[in-house]
Design goal:
Layout: E1 3-8, E2 11-16, H1 26-41, E3 47-52, H2 75-84, E4 89-93, E5 96-98, H3 100-107, E6 110-113, E7 118-120, H4 134-142, H5 144-153, E8 157-158, H6 159-165, E9 170-171, H7 176-189, H8 209-223, H9 229-242, H10 245-259, H11 263-277, E10 296-299, H12 303-314, E11 319-322, H13 326-345, H14 351-360, E12 361-363, E13 375-378, H15 384-397, E14 403-406, H16 413-417, E15 426-431, E16 440-445, H17 451-463, E17 467-472, H18 479-496, H19 500-510, H20 516-523, H21 525-535, H22 548-554, H23 580-592, H24 602-622
Parallel strand pairs: 2-3, 3-4, 4-6, 5-7, 6-9, 10-11, 10-13, 11-12, 13-14, 14-15, 16-17
Antiparallel strand pairs: 1-2, 7-8, 15-16
The structure holds (S)-3-Hydroxyhexanoyl-CoA.
């Protein structure tokens, strides 16, 4: 039974049992309707509790059903049946109530959650809008502004905040079902009036809703540039304000039906499942015991090392930071503190969170201080000799079962591991800058890396809120390697007749956060130069090579750090400005290569850049670098 019917005294208990996450598949929708009908028809029943089996209330609609012909009953019908019940219905929420899951809870008359519950309408993240009454009911329950924020961001709120906002009426102190049943009994005994949200109105006294919606549109236009669904959510909210409930819901259903087959929603659904697939490695299964990671150390307090240390502190794991000199260490600590301060100022964390997290980050006096840590991540200078020296020292200093990780972005993890007597304990953990923000974490499995170290790294990724992608050893791993050919193609386009600003504009408008030349200026043209030099020996002689970036390097144009790179930068500004000096370098480079420059159209730029990346992606899959059982 996907919805089991039980009884506790005068309380009917509908338990949703649809593993793994109680998604609202057709059987659940029908089960809810049947259960509610049965409870209403039974004179011995006074109230109803809806609860999820396992650790989840309901994760939402079954995303796998999207794109297939809809099957009756619709979720809106099931929720309408719940809401219409003349007997009080209480949602008992543990774990997550997301999307359709929260919509079911909003159809119930009361809600009680556990301390660890999380509630949200994340539909925008898969390119759609909440389509089963969430848009209409949530602002009626908690007011326009917070509801709008939750729906446009798609971010869930935790129990305390949900209670504060009034999404849940109580937080369970003991066993959820016992507390929910007691809550229901109280409602019956006290004759608490049933609150059907569809019958209420949105409180708009003193609210300039037009201004609020306009501001939300502008903010979403920036934070979700090019994305359709956040703007459509706001359209739906506007309907919820201006139209009667049923009419607004009808419009929302029309909009969600339009969005589900759209290219953006399809791509976001693909990404949702792909992110989960990335976590699955054929020979690493749940039976492998992962090592507990209760303490960590980071070698290097630069931008990367500092960001990685913050990841641990954010997850409540104490972390030591080691640097070459006391001065560099101090500088790194100040930068970390400043980053947290910025987060406090932006309202992302509270001042007490900053204090707590800073309290978890300590300075290490030397390698001897690392004897007890469970994991070390090296984020030192990107040069093989430096890395090998660090790993030889770690080998001597760290306890036998410590995980030794390198944050290298392109060096050979096997060679780094060879500096130790325990290559099976060595793994790559490649963070992306800013490390405490970016969600991707490449887990680079060396030829000798032990399986439990891979599994431990995957568990760590989850603990620190990253998407861990296991890959094999190769130049650039998956992310940088698949980007490399795109950057190269961009350079060829510039040699053939385009300018950096044109190429960057095309890729930015396509949806990338930055074009490849702007990225080059952030990453450092000197860094790119060093990478190219390290590849000189192995680069096939007949492979096309653009010398233009090397010329910028020779001129000392290292990017933003020197205020000059592919662009020029005004003092204190990160806005890239086209530079005639660069154009002159480009013209000369084309001439020296014997290339007659021509006008290049935007379509050609997009196609050549994307196809280069796609082809490399296919090669990465072909070589089994992505999710390899063994690297190499
Ligand atoms: C919606 O509700 C629309 C409505 O407004 C109205 C429509 C009319 N469907 O992430 P995990 C699978 S839209 C199908 O690894 P965790 C997932 O693929 C929906 N499958 O676990 C994986 O399968 P497998 C709005 C789903 O503990 C397994 O469950 N809701 C769904 O790290 C475990 O997932 C969302 O967008 C689903 N809805 O995180 C919530 N959800 O084992 C999306 C999960 O085969 N879900 N699966 O790889 C999540 O955010 C996380 O999965 C969750 C669990 C927090 C629930």
């Amino acid at each position: 039974m996907t919805v089991a019917y039980g009884q506790q005294g005068a309380i009917a208990v509908l338990t949703i049992d649809n593993p793994p996450v109680n998604a609202l598949s057709v059987a659940v929708r029908q089960g809810l309707i049947d259960g509610i009908g049965r409870a209403i028809g039974d004179p011995a029943i006074a109230a109803i509790v809806v609860i999820g089996k396992g650790k989840t209330f309901i994760a939402g609609a079954d995303i796998r059903e999207f794109g297939k012909p809809p099957q009756a009953p619709r979720l809106t019908v099931a929720i309408a049946a719940i809401e219409a019940s003349p007997k009080p219905v209480v949602a008992a929420i543990d774990g997550v109530a997301l999307g359709g899951g929260l919509e079911v809870a909003l159809g119930c008359h009361f809600r009680i959650g556990t301390k660890r519950c999380q509630l949200g309408l994340p539909e925008v993240k898969i390119g759609i809008v909440p389509g089963a009454g969430g848009v209409e009911r949530l602002p009626r329950l908690i007011g326009l502004e917070p509801a709008l924020k939750m729906m446009v961001s798609g971010d869930p709120v935790r129990a305390d905040r949900a209670r504060e906002l009034g999404i849940i009426d109580a937080i369970a102190e003991g066993d959820l079902l016992t507390d929910a049943a007691a809550f229901a009994e109280r409602v019956v005994a006290e004759k608490t009036p049933i609150r059907r949200l569809s019958e209420s109105t949105i409180a708009l006294d003193g609210v300039d809703w037009r201004a609020l919606l306009a501001a939300a549109r502008a903010t979403a236009g920036k934070s979700h540039r090019g994305q359709i669904s956040p703007q459509r959510v706001i359209d739906c909210v506007e309907n919820a304000i201006t139209l009667p409930f049923d009419q607004a819901l009808g419009e929302t259903i029309r909009i969600i039906n339009e969005l589900i087959p759209s290219a953006q929603a399809k791509a976001l659904r693909y990404a949702f499942f792909a992110e989960r697939e990335a976590g699955k490695v054929p020979d690493i299964d749940k039976t492998i015991t992962v090592r507990p990671l209760r303490s960590a150390a980071v070698i290097g307090a630069g931008t990367m090392g500092g960001g990685i240390a913050m990841c641990f502190a954010d997850a409540g794991i104490p972390v030591l930071v080691l640097e070459n000199s006391a001065e560099a260490l101090e500088k790194g600590m100040v930068r970390i503190e400043q980053n947290y301060q910025d987060m406090v100022q932006k309202g992302r964390i509270r001042a007490e969170d900053k204090t707590k997290r800073m309290g978890l980050i300590s300075k290490a006096a030397g390698y001897d201080a690392l004897g007890d840590v469970d994991i070390v991540i090296e984020a030192a200078f990107e040069e093989m000799a430096v890395k090998k020296d660090v790993f030889a020292r770690l080998d001597r200093a760290c306890k036998p079962d410590a995980v030794l990780a390198t944050n290298t972005s392109y060096l050979n993890v096997d060679e780094i591991a060879s500096a130790t007597k325990r290559p099976e304990s060595v793994i790559g953990l490649h963070f992306f800058s800013p490390a405490n923000v970016m969600r991707l974490l490449e887990i680079v499995r060396g030829a000798k890396t032990a399986k439990d170290i891979v599994a431990t790294a995957q568990a760590l990724a989850r603990t620190i809120g990253k998407i861990g992608v296991v890959c094999g050893v190769c130049d650039g791993f998956v992310a940088n390697r698949s980007r490399g050919p795109m950057t190269r193609e961009a350079s060829f386009l510039v040699d053939e007749g385009a300018l950096p600003q044109q190429v960057d504009k095309v890729l930015y408008e396509f949806g990338m956060a930055m074009g490849p030349f702007a990225v080059g200026d952030v990453a450092g043209i000197d860094v790119g130069w060093r990478v190219r030099r390290s590849l000189d020996a192995t680069r096939p002689k007949d492979q096309r090579y653009s010398p233009t970036a090397d010329r910028l390097y020779e001129l000392g144009r290292y990017g933003q750090k020197t205020s000059k790179g592919w662009y020029r930068y005004e003092k204190g500004s990160r806005v890239p400005l086209p530079d005639p000096e660069v154009e002159a370098v480009i013209m000369q480079s084309s001439k020296d290569q014997g290339i007659t420059r021509r006008a290049i159209g935007d379509e050609e730029i997009l196609a050549r850049c994307l196809y280069a990346a796609i082809n490399e992606g296919a090669k990465i899959l072909d070589e089994k670098i992505a999710a390899p059982t063994r690297s190499g």
